[in-house]
Design brief:
This protein is mostly helical. It has 21 helices and 2 strands. It has helices spanning 9-23, 41-48, 51-61, 64-72, 76-103, 111-132, 140-162, 164-168, 175-205, 222-247, 268-277, 279-298, 301-311, 315-326, 330-343, 345-372, 384-422, 427-442, 444-455, 471-496, 503-526; strands spanning 207-210, 216-219. Strand 1 (207-210) and strand 2 (216-219) form a beta hairpin. Helix 2 (41-48) packs antiparallel against helix 10 (222-247), helix 11 (268-277) packs across helix 18 and helix 13 (301-311) crosses helix 14. The radius of gyration is 24 Å and the shape is globular.
């Protein structure tokens, strides 16, 4: 018999694996025989708080069409074309960040300096776009230049942030928890920030006008855009700072190594190879890109104005009603995480997409019946229609939250799948390749929104709260707000049918990665 340890290669490999996983903050082996890397709850929460940056910018930049009209004198149709162009530019910058990510290393780490650098650039671009050069006599060139500057910074921050979940944990049960907190922040922050913009800042700093019904409403003006830009920049800084604190323990060189003995610099062909051969990534791109078109179009400021300010007839009350239907639906994020932990992230994406389709069809039916009976303005008054609107909003948002939770966790699975497949730890390549295709496709969302609005008569101006509701406005609003989303989820169901990255396969992926790293460590020690 051999003494314990001795020269038994399997024993030495197991010991190496234990040492490696200890360095990576791994927990003891679970029932599936894999030692997983786990993060602390407070770290997960702080990293998820980056949504204060991402979602605050996302909500505010949706008002760029108003900045173009008010501050630069650009007409509606031209605005749609310009924003489509900037979206394509944004897509091109995403894969370029992968090269920066691969080469960017400082004594303070990799991801934290990148995020702070990105915040500084995006903040400069926002202040120029909405305040410092707005209403100063400039036109399309300055609008484009400042918008693109903000996009460069925004890309650096958020592309880096997309790599953080995979960096923190590879535990299949904890990854959905990361998704829960990301989902919670990604829904609460837009709600809260929308209230701040529409119900606090706009009434206080916007232009006060009397509409056709004799009611005083606030319209967008330059003063409001300036104040809103300052608030957005401050909120975004808080989010980036919290994320940097949360990820600090993992922002170390050893956590960015692959499973090959020699590490090569990232090349363009690596990105093309990933896109061509990583099938789970292909399925995820189709799924997420189709959903993003709907999300961007339905989330545009002009759609919110038509739904809340025109159809419901009271922007402030409609905003509060949406919040009332959103907050309880956060419970669905927790339910969704437990479901994904049990059945896997791929199954979660598929099933929650089905439920989202059913819920949005019910919402369209509700609005249609209300339009032809008591009128959609009745939603703003306490009664049956208001209660039904809140309940349906809760269900729609809840199902979307659960689906978003699954999607966040699945992206981390795809990153680890690529590490197992190619031996290279390239989270920025995965995120950048995904974002390139995603943004190229979804770049047409702004054009879709502004184009639909132009078709119903808003060619030189944009919809304003208090405009008279018409059948054309109703139809366009239903299509942009709910119809596009349904089409996106149908694409998700089709794309995920060819994805084989199940819960069982992810266990095998983690085992292979751990074995390869143990062998690599053993080879380096023997050398």
């Amino acid at each position: 018999m051999k003494k314990e340890g001795g020269s038994d290669p399997s024993f030495q490999t197991n010991e190496k694996r234990k040492i490696i996983m200890a360095k990576l903050h791994a927990s003891p082996a679970g029932t599936d025989g894999v030692q997983y890397r786990k993060a602390k709850l407070w770290q997960i929460i702080l990293v998820a708080a980056n949504a204060l940056n991402g979602m605050a910018i996302y909500i505010f930049i949706g008002q760029a069409s108003y900045a173009a009209s008010i501050g630069y004198g650009i007409t509606t149709l031209i605005v749609g074309g310009l924003l489509t162009f900037t979206r394509i530019f944004d897509a091109i910058t995403d894969p370029l960040l992968a090269f920066l990510y691969d080469r960017f290393n400082t004594r303070w780490g990799k991801v934290r300096p990148l995020m702070l650098l990105g915040w500084l650039i995006q903040s400069l671009g926002l202040m120029l776009l909405f305040s410092w050069t707005s209403s100063k006599g400039f036109g399309i060139p300055v609008f484009l230049a400042t918008y693109m500057l903000h996009l460069i910074g925004y890309t650096i921050v958020n592309m880096t942030a997309q790599t953080l979940p995979a960096l923190m944990t590879n535990d299949p049960k904890q990854r959905p928890t990361v998704g829960v907190w990301s989902t919670v922040f990604n829904y609460i922050v837009p709600m809260a920030f929308t209230i701040i913009l529409n119900s606090v800042l706009l009434p206080r700093f916007g232009e006060q006008v009397v509409n056709e019904a004799g009611e005083t409403v606030a319209n967008y003006n330059q003063t409001y855009l300036t104040v809103a830009a300052i608030v957005t920049v401050v909120v975004s800084f808080v989010g980036v700072l919290l994320a940097c604190i949360g990820i600090s323990e993992y922002d170390k060189p050893e956590n960015f190594r692959g499973t090959k003995k020699t590490e090569e610099r990232l090349k363009l062909k690596d990105m093309l190879e990933v896109l061509a051969h990583n099938k789970p990534l292909q399925a995820y791109i189709i799924s997420a890109a189709s959903d993003k078109i709907a999300q961007k179009a339905s989330g545009a400021a002009i759609v919110a104005t038509m739904l809340s300010g025109i159809l419901i007839g009271n922007m402030t009350i409609a905003t509060y009603l949406s919040v009332g239907g959103m907050l309880p639906s956060i419970i669905f994020a927790i339910i969704g995480a437990k479901y994904c932990g049990k059945h896997g992230n791929k199954v979660g994406i598929v099933n929650w997409a089905k439920y989202c389709i059913y819920a949005n069809l019910a919402m369209i039916a509700f609005f249609t019946v209300t339009w032809f009976t008591v009128g959609t303005h009745s939603i703003a008054n306490l009664g049956v229609t208001m209660i039904l609107y809140i309940l349906l909003t809760l269900i729609c948002n809840g199902f979307m939250m659960a689906g978003t939770t699954a999607g966040t966790a699945f992206m981390a699975d795809v990153i680890d799948y690529e590490l197992d497949r190619s031996g290279k730890y390239t989270p920025a390549v995965i995120a950048g390749t995904y974002s390139l295709v995603d943004k190229l496709v979804s770049s047409f969302s702004e054009l879709i929104a502004t184009g639909c609005v132009a078709l119903i008569g808003y060619t030189a101006t944009l919809p304003q709260p208090g405009d008279s509701p018409t059948g054309a406005i109703f139809g366009v609003t239903m299509f942009l707000r709910y119809g596009l989303a349904i089409l996106g989820w149908i694409c998700t169901l089709i794309a995920m049918r060819r994805c084989k990255l199940t819960k069982e396969e992810m266990v095998n992926v983690q085992k292979r990665i751990a074995d390869k790293k143990a062998e690599l460590e053993g080879a380096s020690d023997n050398a």
